[in-house]
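This section describes the prediction task in plain terms. A model, or a person checking by hand, is given the sequence of a single protein chain and must write out its three-dimensional structure as a string of C-alpha cells. No templates, partner chains or ligands are provided. The sample shown here is typical of the held-out split.
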Amino acid sequence: MSPRTPRPKKPASRRPTRQEASLVPEPGGLLDWRDSRHFSYQEDPCTLCGTPAMLRSHAGEPVHKTCAEAWIAQHPAEALLGRFVSDAQPKRRDDDHA
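The expected answer:
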C-alpha cells in the first residue's frame, strides 16, 4: 500500500495580482496548464464535479481542466478574482524565428 500524501490546504482568500488576473482566459477560452505542477499521482475529488481528478489548480485544488474552463464560462465576474488561471508564459523575442 502506498502512503497517501496529505491534501493541499485551501489557500486563504486574497486579492489576485494584476498579472494573475490577466492570466484568466476569456469565457469559453482554454486554460494553459502545461506546467507539471498541475499533475498529481493522487486522485482526489474534483472540487467542481466530484469525480476523481489528477490535475491541480495553481492553488492546489483538485480539478479537471475542462471543469475549470466551464466554471470560468459560467462565472465570468468571479473568474476575474483568479481562482483558475493559466500558466504565465515567458516573453518571446520578436527576432526568434528560424
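For orientation: The helical segments are 18-22, 65-74, 76-79.
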